Amino acid sequence: MFPGTEEGPEDDSTKHGGRVRTFPHERGNWATHVYVPYEAKEEFLDLLDVLLPHAQTYVPRLVRMEAFHLSLSQSVVLRHHWILPFVQALKARMASFQRFFFTANQVKIYTNQEKTRTFIGLEVTSGHAQFLDLVSEVDRVMEEFDLTTFYQDPSFHLSLAWCVGDARLQLEGQCLQELQAIVDGFEDAEVLLRVHIEQVRCKSGNKFFSMPLK
């Protein structure tokens, strides 16, 4: 299942847009993240094709996310030999969790904890309680492995675009209102931004593990 060396992926900032790793990479340490994947449909990308250029008139350095997801954990560090037991523990907890629908249609600006990156996201407005229940299950696994649990009172969201630095000043206020108006006025936005969750995914280093919900 884990071919080759036990080293995690090498840390080359040129490969991730100049972003700064928030914890040092060490041999045998794997950055690990639990999330709900979102498979972007063509109509969703059409909406993004309107939103992003508008936001770029305020912050030109914004770039589209390469993939879309909603986080259920912080990024934590796992030793290589803990990956499989960690994933098995997650699968056991996810197996009895019912699939559900959520809606994410509220534009919101986020930064990471260190304020080194800014994100434009769509906040979950329906399905929040189910996300909290999911996080509760993930947090129990984190505690079993003595890892950091998720944020208190989290804002679940789908990140659309990001940039280096703290760009909240430029994006909040007028820009945010205009982006929300674009979302509200987009054809079939109500249907487009209502999503059925069928699985949770875990990424550890360059490995991906899928955990289907019931």
Protein traits:
214 residues; alpha+beta; 10 strands; disordered N terminus
Topology readout:
Elements: E1 29-38, H1 42-56, E2 63-64, E3 68-71, E4 76-79, H2 83-94, E5 100-111, E6 117-126, H3 128-144, E7 157-164, H4 168-171, H5 174-185, H6 189-192, E8 194-197, E9 199-204, E10 207-212
Antiparallel strand pairs: 1-3, 1-4, 1-9, 2-7, 5-6, 5-8, 6-7, 9-10
Helix pairs in contact: 1-5, 2-3
Can you characterise this structure?
The protein has helices spanning 42-56, 83-94, 128-144, 168-171, 174-185, 189-192; strands at 29-38, 63-64, 68-71, 76-79, 100-111, 117-126, 157-164, 194-197, 199-204, 207-212. It contains six helices and ten strands, in the order βαβββαββαβαααβββ. Helix content is 30%, strand content 31%. The strands form two sheets. Strands 1, 3, 4, 9 and 10 form a five-stranded antiparallel β-sheet that branches. A five-stranded antiparallel β-sheet has the order 2-7-6-5-8. The longest helix is centred in the middle third of the chain and has 17 residues, at 128-144. It is of the alpha+beta class and 214 residues long.
Q: How much β-strand is present in the residues?
A: 25-35%
Helix and strand composition category: alpha+beta
- Element pattern in H and E: EHEEEHEEHEHHHEEE
Shape: globular
How would you summarize this macromolecular structure in one to three sentences?
This protein is of the alpha+beta class and 214 residues long.
